[in-house]
Request: fold
Amino acid sequence: MKKNKNTKDTATGEVSVLVASPGRGKLEGGRTSRRLEGIGEYYFSQKLREIDELNKQGKNIINLGIGSPDLPPHPDVIKTLQEESAKPNVHAYQSYKGSPVLRKAISDWYRKWYDVELNPDTEILPLIGSKEGIMHICMTYLDKGDEVLVPNPGYPTYRSAVKLAGGKCVDYNLKEKNNYEPDFNKLSKKKLGKVKLMFVNYPQMPTGQTPSKELFEKIVAFGKENNILVIHDNPYSFILNAEPMSLLSVEGAKEVVMELNSLSKSHNMAGWRVGMLCGAKERIDEVLRFKSNMDSGMFLPVQLAAAKALTLGKEWQDEVNSIYKARREKVFEMLDLQKCKYSRQQVGLFVWAKIPSTYKDGYELSDEILYNSNVFITPGGIFGDGGEKYIRVSLCGSIERFEEAKARIKNSKVKM
Ligand SMILES: Cc1ncc(COP(=O)(O)O)c(C=O)c1O
Reply:
């Protein structure tokens, strides 16, 4: 059996720990499926181990890498969970389609914020976080060799889910000079016959680019023209963004679009694992055929508390955003120290910034900051080679942490 080794995927720039490929001999511990060949351990799980090690050596690393909200959910959400879970009759398996209470709350939320009508009985599927939905969609629609358009830079899970399902990723590049929008002229010239799905995500992670109505219309038109099912991943529309938008709000979108959404970022509930998939009844039924074979409905009190969260008003979103806004200013100051360039218009839970040309790539700068200043910042290359000249800073930390990170960087020997 081959040894484990570190590799760098040249297309994505993603650093992976590749686990040994399966041998044909007798069953050995750790022998993994061919499906896992080329699939690395998720970058962060590997990096967090390294950060743990550095912390054990007493380094006290400030981790500005991961977008896991540090603020709590609204107190009424916690209260609902507490009260509901104290009841004797809420502990059984739940429906695969989720509680009608949660589906109704999602439908009301989509109408209120996005002006989109969804039938709560047929057009909504609650998920255990939107990340699992990405995998379910790939397993539902992809056969070996089917192609999928994925954004570069983009959320790495699209790429790994496609590969795990046997599909092939076809990158579409998002460039700063095009406002991180797909180049549809270029895309239309590609051979698209084998493309079944396209992942899109606006506000875009990692670039923080907001969508325009025109962009959304072009995406839907592209899906229709090319008979491609478009999966819009929409977890950041409430973070620092004045105008939450759904791709499903485009006329006729349900014919070709499914949208993933999540309470992880919008309601500070990342660990609760509550997301949703919205779209035409036929599509929801198709994904449910796969999902119902994988897991069961979420714990009912979690679903009821999530329903409560979805009724929260603008005041609450504004309060959370005022905190992120103040933090973002600190991050801008920190990036100024590093001579990075960034857009002040970007939204979402991160700041995306171009590194100075004195660095080969974001990995070099990220490592230098980690080892010299004990601050971890994500290198943009993990989102695809289009992100190699960038870094991404998470807004999930207290103002004091950002002050401290800034001071450490200022006082360290980082070259710049
Ligand atoms: C673009 C994007 N999509 C989906 C997710 C997954 O979110 P969830 O917690 O709902 O699984 C993330 C989380 O970081 C994300 O950045």
Q: What stands out?
A: Residues 1-23 have pLDDT under 50 and may be disordered. The longest strand covers residues 147-152. The two ends are 44 Å apart (CA to CA). Residues 67, 129-131, 155, 201, 205, 233, 235, 262, 264, 270, 275 surround pyridoxal-5'-phosphate (CB under 6 Å).
